Amino acid sequence: MSDGGLFLRPIGVVRHGLSDDEVRNSSMGVDGIIEVFEEFADGLRNIDGFSHLILISLFNKVTREQRSVLVVRPRRLVKFGIRPEELPEVGVFATDSPHRPNPIGLSIVKLIGRDGRFLRVSGLDLFNGTPILDIKPYTPDRSVSVNDLRTPTWYSTLWRRIGGGVI
Fold this sequence. Notes:
Elements: E1 2-3, E2 6-7, E3 12-15, H1 20-24, E4 30-36, E5 52-58, E6 71-72, E7 90-91, E8 104-115, E9 118-124, E10 131-137, H2 153-161
Antiparallel strand pairs: 1-2, 3-4, 3-10, 4-9, 5-8, 5-10, 6-7, 8-9
């Protein structure tokens, strides 16, 4: 994939066989497989002991028009009972919307197991066939203490409405 002089080559692909709507409507993500291409299989050495992985992906279904969107409503909260008209309009960088100038995704998934170059994961929020650009282990030095986590008022208000607890 090349755009504007930048070249990124996928190292793998998401496999689960579910429809885009099934993934989109899943509140906790879906189970699936990350198929790492043979030429990158050695990069998985010693990944087995990690409980969670960070997946960097390319939102390959985002159109050029959608890449120009800079203000959105955080629609992920609709799955939890918030009506679309109740959602504030916010900048795309204040959300995890796939509609963004560079359609790159970041997902944290649970590593269930590994079979060679195939990683079984849960909590996947990516469509079947999504290209994977990179995989990183989720380690304690990457985590944020709940005591340090802060969100804007619009988000914490909606989060409490869906029963998400205090932030």
